[in-house]
Design goal:
Structural class: alpha+beta
CATH architecture: Alpha-Beta Complex
CATH topology: Sufe protein. Chain: A
Number of helices: 5
Shape: globular
Largest sheet: 3 strands, antiparallel
Order of helices and strands: HEEEHHHH
Length: about 130
Amino acid sequence: MDLDIIKIAADTSNNKILEDYTHKSKYKNKTCGDYIEIRLEIKKNQIKNIGYQTKSCVYCQASTNLVTKTLIKKTKNKLNYLLDNLVDYFEDEIKPLPKDLIKFKKLFNKKNISRKNCVIMPLIALKKMSIDE
């Protein structure tokens, strides 16, 4: 396992219970049983705060950390941009990642394809979330 992935997962600044939230989503990986819950506080189209809890492997923890750190203080459009670009890149790696998402390259690559379900768990949870309200 890559030491950089462990370091990314070790940052737990957004691993918290967010009591004042406007959106919430849960997802359980049917393959391995890993679980994630993400809560967002969105005001005036901006993600003000994010909290997540997970019972999962280091790949999911690292991915969730990167995703939540990227989205804080961003608009809902940035959430959709992130979802579209990361899933597409992980699928084929033909289209290069945008410069602002290069930090995801360590996780979202063919080398980790056997852990794909773990790496995309936070994206699936976010995609399930209805943020149009």
